[in-house]
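Exam revision sheet. Question 4 asks you to relate a sequence to its structure. Input first:
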Amino acid sequence: MKKIIILTVFLTTLSTFAQKSINNYKYLVVPLQWEFSNGKDAWRLNTLVRYLFKEEGFNVYFDEEKLPEDLFKDRCLALYVDVNKIEGGFLKNRMQISLLNCKGKEVMLSKVGESKKKDHKQAYNEAVREAFESFMGLNYRYEPMQKVNNEAGNVKTSNQVIQQEESIQTKSKLIQGANLTGSETRKAESKSQLSQSIVYYAQAIPEGYQVVNTVPEVVMILLKTSAENVFMVKGKTATVFKKDGKWIYSENDGKTTIEKELNIEF
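Answer key, structure tokens:
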């Protein structure tokens, strides 16, 4: 019973995380051809996917149609829809939908939809509709990511070293940790958090530096210390320091110390 509760709580957290992350993107872009298809809009599958997302309130465009001016100038305003045919289903057609950001990183991954129908058009249609159930009920509403304010007094920071752009698929691997003991779960979480994936940029402010991602969004404030290349992280029991030419983020929660290499450009 305890394992089921833990798993339910974790899945709910993942769903909330996914919704918050998706809400930060203004558009969805659907390609006119998938890797497994033999032509543009084969089996009308691309049109179906576009229609399904529109029904959920998303602002969706095909990749070959005229894009809004702001998206044309900044492709990172959109998530890019990919549909994959999953091999290995005996007498079944299996499909999965993923949303990728402009860097090709996975933001959300659907469940696998299945169909036993023999006709490709009917089978793919049914499997995609089942996979799409993962995106239903998210109550999507565009919420622009916070832009960087260079005046230190007005800076608002999420105080998060792990970005919203991290792969939902990577985070979902922690579901397996629901069957572990407390200490084993902490180890699994720490291992996941120690993965390096994003380039950060340090911008000088009077008290030190504000570190931003490519959105741009302020993720933390580094406060100067008397030591060279050693900073305190504002609002956290953490430091960022340079070791062997690499920047290391080190945080202590009172029980354990977690270190993570960060790719920061000063």
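Marking note for examiners. The domain at 25-135 is CATH 3.40.50 (Rossmann fold).
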